[in-house]
Amino acid sequence: MDESLPEGTTAAPQKGTVTQRAIDQIKAMIGEGRLEPGARLPTERDLASQLGISRSSMREAIRALTVLGVLEARHGSGIYVTQLEAGDLLETFGVVADLSRGPGLVELLEVRRILESTATALAAARITPDQLAEVEKHLTAMNATDDPEEILSHDLAFHRAIGVAAGNDTMAAILEGLSSRTFRARVWRGYQEEGAFERTRREHAAIHRALVARDPETARAAAAAHVGEVEQWLRTQLQP
Amino acid sequence: MDESLPEGTTAAPQKGTVTQRAIDQIKAMIGEGRLEPGARLPTERDLASQLGISRSSMREAIRALTVLGVLEARHGSGIYVTQLEAGDLLETFGVVADLSRGPGLVELLEVRRILESTATALAAARITPDQLAEVEKHLTAMNATDDPEEILSHDLAFHRAIGVAAGNDTMAAILEGLSSRTFRARVWRGYQEEGAFERTRREHAAIHRALVARDPETARAAAAAHVGEVEQWLRTQLQP
DNA sequence: ACCACTGAGGTGGTCCGACCACTACGCATG
DNA sequence: CATGCGTAGTGGTCGGACCACCTCAGTGGT
């Protein structure tokens, strides 16, 4: 595409659509620090006139930045810049997991295996007593019920707690997206029908033991095996 | 054929905004397979009347799904579903890298270190002669010039070629986002001013040697060290 | 002096209708 | 048969109108 990025910060020649230009300009304002996280933007009407476009086009631009987690519109109040933290910006990652299929699912699970194993290893080294208690809470709750829906909830919370304990919010947010509810539900529907409940419980117990022992390498192996089990099963499902 | 959503997890008769509902409905259509990748959607006007909303609101919904890489609007032709591949859906990942700052940058680089090292290890085991030639091409081109802009280009292409050789398109797409042009340019501006050119060249050479030797473990270590160097430098920059 | 209520103004949310810019495809033309 | 052109249909843009909601100053009571 076009290359030159001179000093002209707001230099926006006749690019693509008017709306796309507005998106880039607002994004640039934030990138250059002219709009701090949490700041309130001018009204839609003012923004539109400032950039010389109609309110309709400006609204499309705002909507685009809203779904990306960059802006937040509060009805009756105004438009605000989000905190631009990992959780805000990576929320869209869930869409990828929800709409991927076929080979893409396996690749996604492979990425999760890599990140989850590392995150679990980090957690083993850094986890605090409070965080460990949180992990244990979901572990026992998971083992105390037979309702698949509830198991899934605590399963997600179990791994989420570990992700938080790893101390890298960005990684935790990515893992959160890779483990979105619909994604897991879709994959597990068939997997757990093959009596994988018990195996899952054993694997979770192994991860927990490694965390208690503060043994990063064992934790890494246990987490990799845990995700790898599902990954391998899914791989066979795509080989009819 | 629409209206009431039968039993469901989020049984909410009247959700949020009309536009958000339209976004969810279109997303659901794709998720349920009612819209195949590459398929053409009805016109904006038809879609709007089908869902009982105005064309303006429908356009906002379409715009939202467009920036997410789910839909693609072609002026004068129609609206189409993308191929829903990794590259389409993960394009938004670059926005995260562009707008993150402070501690988030280090976390992002940590994620990249984990994924890049694994990808490089996989590449060492799987890379083909053609792919290896591609890697070498950018390596030599990178060493043959002093233009920072050109070096950056070949640097990106160098790692991109390795990511492709790893055989996981999803991981390659994520790494592509984590290494977006503006992201790298921002971080390297200061880094390379401290005479890190030579060190970067040595690290790239080490990665290349490991690929030629088809030694995954050495490749993993070399890649981790390479990214880790930048990561550590950036970490010190945030401790004033 | 304090607090609860109320009203008006401002904001985002939705809708409508018109026109423009571009593409696609069939028809007339050579 | 190949070429060119015109038309119908599509997304893109615009302006205005009205609605739903939040905010806060002003009011009235205690």
TrEMBL record, chains A, B:
The keyword DNA-binding applies. Residues 16-84 form the HTH gntR-type domain. InterPro entries: GntR_C, TF_FadR/GntR_C, Tscrpt_reg_HTH_GntR, WH-like_DNA-bd_sf, WH_DNA-bd_sf. Keywords: DNA-binding, Transcription, Transcription regulation. It holds the Pfam family FCD. PANTHER family: TRANSCRIPTIONAL REGULATOR, GNTR FAMILY, UXU OPERON TRANSCRIPTIONAL REGULATOR. This is FadR family transcriptional regulator. It comes from Streptomyces phaeochromogenes.
